Amino acid sequence: MAGSNEVNINESKRVVPLNTWVLISNFKLAYNLLRRSDGTFNRDLAEYLDRKVPANTIPADGVLSFDHVDRATGLLNRVYLRTTEGQLAWGFEELEKPLSTTEAVPVIVFFHGGSFTHSSANSAIYDTLCRRLVKTCGAAVVSVNYRRSPEHRYPCAYEDGWTALKWVKSRTWLRSGTPNDSKVHVYLAGDSSGGNICHHVAVRAAEAGVEVLGNILLQPMFGGQERTESEKRLDGKYFVTIRDRDWYWRAYLPEGEDRDHPACNPFGPRGCSLEGLIRFPKSLVVVPGLDLVQDWQLAYVEGLRKSGHDVKLLYLKEATIGFYFLPNNDHFYILMEEIKCFVNPNLNCQKR
Amino acid sequence: MGPGKPPPPPRTELDGFLAGAGYKVRSSDLHHVAQRLERLESAMVSSPSHVVSHLTSDTVHYNPADLVSWVDSLLSELTHSYHHPNNSSAPTSSTSSSSHSLPVDLDDLFAIPSAANNWLQPEMPLSQPPQLTVFTTMEEDSGIRLVHALMTCAELVQRGDLHLAGTLVDEMTALLTRINTGCGIGKVAGYFIDALSRRVSGAGSAPASPHETEILYHHFYEASPYLKFAHFTANQAILEAFEGHDCVHVIDFSLMHGLQWPALIQALALRPGGPPILRLTGIGPPSPDGRDTLREIGHRLAELARSVNVRFAFRGVAVSGLEDVKPWMLQVSPNEAVAVNSIMQMHKLLGPDPSPIEPVLSWIRGLNPRIVTLVEQEVNHNQTGFLDRFTEALYYYSTVFDSLEAACPVQPDKALADMYLQREICNIVCCEGAARIERHETLAQWRDRLNRSGFRPLPLGSNAFKQASMLLTLFSAEGYSVEENEGCLTLGWHSRPLIAASAWQASPLSAAIADGDN
To answer: Where is the signal peptide (chain A) (predicted)?
Structure first.
């Protein structure tokens, strides 16, 4: 209905800067064109419209990147590394050395968002975000180009996440710490579907005895059959609708499944408790106060707490989805500070 | 605006944050774009489903980085199809390309039987898992050592220490015996060591005869999708540019075996309203042995054109280099629509001063072409510093060779395709001055140059993108990717663009002066 649509547009315009509004509305429009009502997806047009950037081994603002492709699977990871002052270009001799022999350098395995369907590791918005993570946190970042739905449904994204994690853990050049204590200090991070992937990969890692030091779930994508209060209240108001959320779950979950599938609703009626899974890492869960699925995100936090796991909730009351794409708002800086402290436990961080 | 807030950015500046997200929007245009997005949202909500579905499936999109033009064109498409439900395309303004999608079936473009010119690629077996040895994955000791040694050697060459460089070449040659030189880093390193060896010893690279060059080119065409992509994309753009014209003239900067043209002839034959009169001027080197290769190829193309009822005339222009071409040789007449087609040729004109590129661009512009199609390697191999150039080439060709291995081409295509690339490597590493012709530059550099020389871009659309993607699935292995880059298309291997296709037309004269600073 045109009237309420206008209200919705005006509301979202009030809470974000104009360039953010343009960016996210542009995505919203494009994504509306790409999703078909029969559940198929216009992948060609999606790839055409997506803004991509190549990797660059020449340092730009203290960060260089290069792509690695797994021989067997074709899975691409984009690696981002911090460069030292005056370093001109990254040479292959670096592959023989660890990141540091004196201190721990966090390695963040990053899963980009896009509701399991959109974007890639080389999408401009995510390349930029990963570079910012390197700079702010002093971390190495490995961005995983996982297979997307609807062409590749559950559990492909989780499989690719697990493969990437194993690859990262086994790279000698991603290790850090004193020689007696040298290991890859891995954290998992992701936004939207990427956050969801973090959770499931972390569970698998914990079960397999593979150490992950922390999970960072930024606006994670969870859901369930029930319509929660936040979904009803915020439907269509801040760029996202229940209808599009439903589409993405239908595209990702196995055909015929509903949203109480544990991939979507890990602490729901078909989920399982993580109680006793001692190796499950500490979590930082970031919830934008204007995200319509926040009730599910908050339920996730509750689920972790009830299972006895360490979880910090960062609730950003006035933030909309995608607030972290452009550094033009306070939430962005608060977020970066939190992540930096989370992956650098030795830093003397102020308690918020 | 309260106290303490930063001043707003200058009005003509691009919004820096959106630029980081891949979008080019001026700060002063943000409101316009926002307003359009709002209108589109409302329109789509209230439009009948066939209108929205038209926007999705039939509309051709151009240059998504330019948000202003993208939203404007979407809105006009939406408005048009809302009012004209039976007409699938909107009339376009004169400044943008036509939004008609190509009315030619993909099969038709490749179905031309030609015994003498069998350029139809047989189906490649895709069942084998690709043996990817992407350069950056090298973590085997000898691979890393070799690359390390190559860089050190190149640095020595740059410093002028040829004696020490020569010693290192010997060491590397010995190292090579311990690794597999049939594929992967061993193979690529081998070529670079060979090129360095020639440079250090002063032997240089032997220039290839035109005949050899043509053969190598043909096999490179067969073994990989790069040249097919180039031809396909250029033809698509030329076809669109020729719409509505009855007399058309294509000037091909390097005819080779004329591989590009059967598809265009066929497409013109099938266009609604009938084919135009087609003239093709093929530029190529003179044949040494008294044969007139250009004319022979012209004959074959003429036969093909006759078989599909396209009135066709061919003219060959034999010159050793593009710099020797004079516009009068092309005999362009005023009533014909001209397309200038340059596939991997322009970079050869970037030699040392007096560099022929400006005069050539100038006479091209003087022909007032409807379109100039330009395909070039997407890399900067024209840097003055030897080490930089060497490093760039090492990365670039490693990626190209990897992609070839995965495409699993058959022999002798593979071996000869490798030689084709080896020649390029040798030229980049061994030669200097006028002898160094493989002076590849990036799309960004070409954009700059062409904008300054009085051309403006003709964006390649989502239809060309889609069909290029289809081409890849037909002919190549997994791992190739087509990307859109501000109106141009690139073909690359896994996220690394390797070849870029763009289209241009002459800017109106007054605009050329005003746009000089953009």
So the answer is: none
A119: left (phi over 0), alpha (psi -120 to 50) or beta: left
Are B345 and B254 in contact, with CB atoms under 8 Å apart? yes
d(CA B356, CA B509): 22
Let me know: does B341 contact B281? Beta carbons within 8 Å.
Answer: no
Share of chain B above pLDDT 90, in %: 60
B78 — pLDDT class (breaks 50, 70, 90)? confident
What letter represents residue A44's amino acid?
A: D
Would you say B137 and A68 are in contact if contact means Cβ atoms under 8 Å apart? yes
CA distance A176 to chain B (A): 18
- Which residues does chain A have within 8 Å of residue B133's beta carbon, measured at their own beta carbons? 71
Check the CA dihedral B434-B283-B369-B497 and report its sign: negative
Provide the pairing of β-strand A63-69 with A311-316. unpaired
Residue B270 CA: distances (Å) to CA of A75, B102, B364: 41, 11, 29
Q: Among A226, A273, A269, A274, which residue's Cα sits nearest to residue A246?
A: A226
Better pLDDT: B470 or B96: B470
Interface test with A, best of B13, B41, B45 (most A CBs within 10 A): B41
B117, B200, B266, B350 from B123: Cα distances, Å: 17, 43, 22, 38
What pLDDT digit, counting tens, does each position of A197-254 carry? Answer: 999 999 999 999 999 999 999 999 999 999 999 999 999 999 999 999 999 999 999 9
Non-local CB neighbours of B314 within 8 Å, separated by 6+ positions:
B279, B280, B281, B282, B295, B298, B299, B301, B302
Do A48 and B484 make contact, defined as CB atoms within 8 angstroms?
yes
Distance CA B60, CA B51 (A): 14
Is 0.90 topped by the overall pTM? Answer: no
Q: In Å, what is the CA distance from B264 to each residue of B98, B267, B274, B417?
A: 18, 5, 14, 25
CB atoms within 10 A of CB B516: 11
3 state SS of B367: coil
Q: Does B132 touch chain A (CB under 8 A)?
A: yes
> pLDDT value at position B178?
78
Tokens for A341? 């402290």
* pLDDT reading at A132 higher than 50: yes
Q: Is the ipTM, as predicted for this complex, more than 0.90? A: yes
| Helices and strands of chain B, counted as H and E runs | 19, 9
